[in-house]
Specification:
By secondary structure, the protein is α/β, with parallel strands linked by helices. It is built from 16 helices and 20 strands. The strands form four sheets. It has a six-stranded mixed sheet, sandwiched between helices. Strands 16-17-18-13-19-20 form a six-stranded mixed sheet, with helices on both faces. Strands 2-1-4-5 form a four-stranded antiparallel sheet, with no helix packed on it. It is globular. The relative contact order is 0.14.
Amino acid sequence: MTTTMEIRGVRKRFGSTQALAGVDLTLRGGEILGIAGPNGAGKSTLTKILCGEESMDSGEILVDGRPWQPGDVSDPIAIVHQEPQVWTNLTLEENLLVGNEGAWWRAPVAGEEQRRILESLGVAHLADQPLERCTLAVRQRTEIARALVRSARFFLFDEPNSALTDEESHALFAFMHGLADQGYIVVFVSHRLSEMVAHCDRVVVIRDGVPAATLTGDALTEPAIAVELVAGQTLRTERRATSRLTDGDAAARVLAVTGWTDGAGSFRPLDLELRRGDVLAVVGVEGSGGRELVASLGGHRPATGDARLNGAQGAKALRERTSYLSADRQEMLFQHMSVGDNLVLRLGRREICGPFARLRRREIQSRSERMIERYAVRTSGPAQNLSALSGGNQQKVAIASAMATMPDVLVIEEPTRGVDIGSKAEIYTMLNEFAADGRAVVVFCTEAPEVFEVANRVMVLEGGRIVQELAVGDYDTVDAFAHALALLEGVETTQDRPVNGLATLAGPSDSTEESS
């Protein structure tokens, strides 16, 4: 018998914000259901309710026609997170026992069923390894194994492959198809439209707290999803000029580095110049040195060479006059603090403190309200807890906080990682307006469409050296630009859909060493 979950009239309000306005949705075993929606539309709230992390104000959920309570340990729903919720100091096997320890919680997991699950996930050979020594993909599979050990019938994958390699992503999708083939309910939440089209049987677009559209069959296309995502929104899509300034305008130079290297071999000595108005995208496959270069320009990775930033010289100038934001926004945000406090946390005493170092709450309130309005952060106000915001709005808070100090150069990795199409356009606008104000932006990107939208200059790295610099304005379409970029990076531009099955999760990418 195929399992069915019916969600009826589910509502949820946070203060004055109506997160869910009456969700009616049916989930069926044997299919992969995609859930898409602009950030702030309510999809995060819905997933939290299904997993028991939030309570619903009204409505009901039925499983096979019977009332079901989120958080029911006897009939759990498993969520596979973007950042796996595991205990890294414990081994893989020990993680399977957490919450069901009894007197033998340190004993190895026994039983043919557990061993079969680990083998099907391709991680049986890592059972005795501490997860702190394992890759992100292995940690995700540990989450999945823990759910299977507890006989979960529902699997919710929340942006599960945003930090995985292509090979690991293929393996993950193969496993999702394998679960659906066995009759499990599989839900896939993502902002990557191509993956939804490739892997989902049905896609529901949530907008303003309710399911606004359901796409299936021939109607399930990337353009169709995109239209539903941005319905009712006004997106800024103007392309930026290739350069606002002439090459010979010395006064326009913001940053110049020569002979710049980290000494560890990540990137070789190189020269780089930024001018006012520049948005420079550094691109390259993992191991190219691009990510390390960007971190060094933000003052967060040691490097040697000559650096000049608006007349100041040396690494100290980079640390003091740049603002850096890593790819992991959780490193830069405090979930337990308010939106307002997160927006101003980088500001110094002079801006937000009065006599005796007391916080000037009115000043914090005023500044944060202005930033919320300017950057269109969807929140009930500065006092709202940051954890209540959607991923896209949290990303806007992180970027706004980095901009608040008015640095000469903003350095940011993966500016729209895990963000929907509408919020992406807003973030592109944030970065371009910041650069247009006489500053410069450096981004590390892994997606060609993002580079095409946000940057005017592109630096391609391979093997720690610059192989090419491109002007985005030289390309009329994103396809032409992506093709040129793929040739320079030496990677294929097409990917095959993985074959269904569980065993394909095992592969050479599985390692006990943490990937960099």
